[in-house]
Amino acid sequence: MKLYLAPGACSIGIHVLLEEIGKPYEAEVVNLREGAQHKPEFTAINPKSKVPTLVRDDGTTMTEYPSIAYWLARTNPFSNLLPDNIDQQARVLELMDYAVATIHMHGFSRMFRASNYTPNAADEDTVKAKGKEMVEKGFAVLNAALEGKDYAVGGYSIADSAIFYVEFWAGRVGITLPPNCAAHLERMKARPAVQRVLQQEGLA
């Protein structure tokens, strides 16, 4: 397998899952700041121009965080990245999707790329403020979901990898995590797989 990633981007969560699984894989950095995601060499692999992108052993490409995470979990059952119980599986997908589709794509996206949401540069601060409000609301939801738990749903799962990356981003932009999220982040950072990924991506 080959993972196309950008250090510190959402692909860090998939990187963590690959380390948790322990099977051989390659990692290739896509320089988003230099626009490498839009160059023909990469768009031939993923025309969506985004990471994470996973090229599987059969040469086919898989994109989108939830799809990659789910596929990795189902094809590597020994890693216990997805509960056996169908209700718990649904909760894992629910929380993973909330972290990716709401906290990341609605909240952090406005904070990181405000110009994508308004043609008027004078409005960008308002856009960023709205994004921060959405992120903080999202963490309040996650904080409640993590109450009394070490991990999101029962044991460690693919949901925790997605929650981890948005929690990690919070620290990088100065957002204070609520207590259960802060504890979850520290618990994640203590995992050997996460420590290896942070080292490999130059974020330790």
Topology:
Elements: E1 2-5, H1 11-21, E2 26-29, H2 40-43, E3 53-55, E4 61-63, H3 65-75, H4 86-112, H5 124-145, H6 158-172, H7 179-189, H8 192-200
Parallel strand pairs: 1-2
Antiparallel strand pairs: 1-3, 3-4
What does this structure look like?
The protein folds into two domains: 2-79, Glutaredoxin (3-Layer(aba) Sandwich); 86-191, Glutathione S-transferase Yfyf (Class Pi), Chain A, domain 2. The protein has helices at residues 11-21, 40-43, 65-75, 86-112, 124-145, 158-172, 179-189, 192-200; strands at residues 2-5, 26-29, 53-55, 61-63. A hairpin with a 5-residue loop joins strand 3 (53-55) and strand 4 (61-63). The model has no long low-confidence stretch (mean pLDDT 97). It has 204 residues and is of the alpha+beta class. The chain is 54% helix and 7% strand. Strands 2-1-3-4 form a four-stranded mixed sheet, with helices on one face.
